[in-house]
Amino acid sequence: MSAVATPPEIRPTDFLAIDHLLSDEERDIRDTVRAFVRDRVVPYVGEWFEEATIPLELAKDLGRLGVLGMHLDGYGCAGASATAYGLACLELEAGDSGVRSLVSVQGSLAMYAIHRWGSEEQKREWLPRMAAGEALGCFGLTEPDSGSDPGSMRTRARRDGEDWVLHGQKMWITNGSVAEVAVVWARTDDGVRGFLVPKGTKGFTTQDIHRKLSLRASVTSELLLDDVRLPADAVLPEVSSLKGPLSCLNEARYGIVWGAAGAARACFESALEYSKERVQFGKPIASFQIQQQKLATMALEVNRATLLALHLGRMKDEGRLRPEHVSMGKLGNVNAALEVARTARQVLGANGVTLEYPVIRHMNNLESVVTYEGTADVHALVIGGALTGISAFR
Q1: How far is CA 333 from each of CA 259, 263, 358, 366, rounded to the nearest angstrom?
Q2: Which helix (H) or strand (E) holds 160?
Q3: Is the distance from CB of 230 to CB of 158 less than 8 angstroms?
Q4: Which helix (H) or strand (E) holds 11?
Q5: What's the rounded Cα separation, in Å, for the pair 157 and 185?
Q6: Cβ count within 10 A of residue 67
Q7: What is the number of alpha carbons within 13 Å of residue 162 lying toward its C-beta?
Q8: How far apart are CA 302 and CA 13, in angstroms?
Q9: Are residues 127 and 69 in contact, defined by beta-carbon separation less than 8 angstroms?
């Protein structure tokens, strides 16, 4: 008869002992990114959020940390597992969604597009510098009138001799004005093509979007392409359909599945700590049944979201992950994170709306996360289509 293992002690911040499911290497990567966030993000991000800025030198710090394009192979990239990359996203978004967005756009959108669909020359030119944080990239797909339906984009590229000429407008582009290169998707006579547009190219300008009340520690821009002339080798040669940008979006959405769990965890931990310190009616509010019920519900959602992210990470590492799985992960985890943030804000009372605590910042950020990289409604319809075999779109 085999010996009975002793159950682990309950750890409030890891109630289901999920840490036990990780390898030593995965824990080391997680702990390294967590320490970076604790030292380089958490003490300052409230000020960044208030001032609507993010220091550009943070990109080089993230490059030295090794998280920019960490799931890609070669060209200065770490070649880490999908699960390890997910754990990094979780810790980055526990700091702030804007920081995770910077890393996601850099690695899962701009770098992934070049790595997956670019030429060898394009990879050698851009990927090592982008992995080091020496050159930022952005991803130009969304337009003012084309969000959930990228097939309706109006930006066009036409041939003029050996050159390409791009004309159009992109909107809500993270890293747009600070990027050294923009991956811009445009309609052509041969389908949807991706183009590498270096900063400073004639006819290519950007302008930042201001007065945001969400993702304030993040640069969000509009890209304007006024007959931008590019050489033939600016096009990504390996794709000529929406498969190109959609494959990149699926990579980024995968990171969001993990990141949302991190934002939820940060809100829960803040509420748990506050509830044990805040005294009302002569005792900590953690002793009241209604507050314990809120804490229990938040802990359930955080653990459930983390387990879902980990399961999808294992599936991705095994080559079994489908876009529909990612849609379920994003829909479930972001919605859960929003509920956790709102509940945590109630636990903190009036203090919950100040930047002295992370909750309202995460809560506002998640209002962007729930709609970018595919709205919650669109992901629900993707899942519905997979369940019924009937598309709700075209």
Answers
A1: 9, 10, 19, 11
A2: strand 156-160
A3: no
A4: none
A5: 9
A6: 28
A7: 4
A8: 9
A9: yes
Q: What is the DSSP letter of 143?
A: B
Residue pair 216/48 in contact by the 8 Å Cβ criterion: yes
The model's pLDDT over 158-195, given as tens digits with 9 standing for 90+, comes to 999 999 999 999 999 999 999 999 999 999 999 999 99
Rg (CA), the chain: 22
* Euclidean distance between CA atoms 169 and 91, whole angstroms: 33
Name residue 241's amino acid.
S
CATH superfamily, region 244-388: Butyryl-CoA Dehydrogenase, subunit A, domain 3 (1.20.140.10)
CA distances from 130 to 63, 173, 205 (A): 8, 17, 21
The residues annotated with a catalytic role in the active site are 373
pTM over 0.85: yes
From CA 235, how far away is CA 357, in angstroms rounded?
45
- Amino acid letter, residue 361: R
Q: How far apart are CA 253 and CA 373, in angstroms?
A: 6
Counted residue by residue, the chain has a size of 394
CATH pick for 137-240 out of 3.30.200.20, 3.30.230.10, 3.40.50.2000, 2.40.110.10: 2.40.110.10
Domain covering 15-131 assigned CATH 3.40.50.300 in the classification: no
**Domain spans, the chain:** 15-131, 137-240, 244-388
Residue 1 has pLDDT above 60, yes or no: no
**Is 149's pLDDT higher than 90?**
no
